[in-house]
Amino acid sequence: VQLVQSGAELRNPGTSAKVSCEASGYTFINYYIDWVRQSPGQGLEWMGRIDPEDGNTNYAQKFRGRVTFTADASTNTAYLELQSLRVEDTAVYYCNANPPYLDIWGQGTLVTVSS
User: Fold this and answer.
1) 109-113 and 9-11 as β-strands: parallel, antiparallel, unpaired?
2) Using an 8 Å Cβ cutoff, are 30 and 17 in contact?
């Protein structure tokens, strides 16, 4: 049972980044995927969640209009895309799922925004 994320990204300000999260070992469509990030020296920040079964999303107010979550049930993969990147978006981005009795985290994807 695991979530495997895509590799680190280096982006310029104003561009976008897309992080993938591939699930295995459980029924992907049955459990929400949450996205959380941790900026350098900061705590975890919840960005929102997606229901992989129907694609319904719930975005944290701070990120609405700039983030998009999608899910592909054919590949058991969830995606986070963050647009209009700013230097302060530099962080490690994590996906998380909670099948019964489990709390599964991806290994994290470092997104660095720098000119």
Assistant:
1) parallel
2) no
